[in-house]
Amino acid sequence: MAKSESRSFSKILKSMLVVLLIVAASIGATLYYTTQTGAQPLNAGNDGVSVASAQAAVTPPPPPPIFVSLEPFTVTLRNERASRILHVAITLRVTDEASRQVLTTYMPEVRDRVLSRLAEQHPVQVQTTEGRAKLVQDLSNALEAPYLPQPQGPSIQNVLFTAFVVQ
């Protein structure tokens, strides 16, 4: 009986040693791999590119976005059956500081252009995804037009609705 217990104990011990050896080899391989790949960039290869020049070639982070918030708009939308109220808050994402300055300087005209486009909308169409996408395009086109006497209008990346309610 003692022999069978010692045999089962030795089998368990051998199994534990094999598992421990596999775990140790796995940890060793992982450490080796991470230290080797951490020492040089992935795209450096053997072409002689140094770490410093590879880091210098990395593009700088993009500049922070520039947003111009407009005061909320409330417009009456009319159709053949009834009138509806559209309440919308808009934020514009512009490409540069000059565009932000143009929009800020000409804010009364900016608001007039937005109000004109909003008043043209049909109450049912403006509630659909396609209708909102068309409204974004219409507003972008209207706001990118030059503000006289400026020769060029602002560059708008996106028109964002921060509130949109139709009642």
From TrEMBL:
The record's listing under Pfam families reads: FliL (PF03748)
Instruction: List the subcellular locations.
Output: Cell inner membrane; Cell membrane
User: How does it sit in the bilayer?
Assistant: Single-pass membrane protein
Of the GO CC terms on this record, one is: plasma membrane
| Chief location of this protein within or outside the cell | membrane
Which residues are listed as membrane-spanning? 12-33
Gene Ontology terms describing biological process: bacterial-type flagellum-dependent swarming motility; chemotaxis
Keywords attached to this Swiss-Prot or TrEMBL record, sorted alphabetically, are: Cell inner membrane, Cell membrane, Cell projection, Chemotaxis, Cilium, Flagellar rotation, Flagellum, Membrane, Transmembrane, Transmembrane helix
Source organism superkingdom = Bacteria
* Cited function: Controls the rotational direction of flagella during chemotaxis.
Give the UniProt family note. Answer: Belongs to the FliL family.
Q: What is this protein called?
A: Flagellar protein FliL
**Gene source species:** Paracandidimonas soli
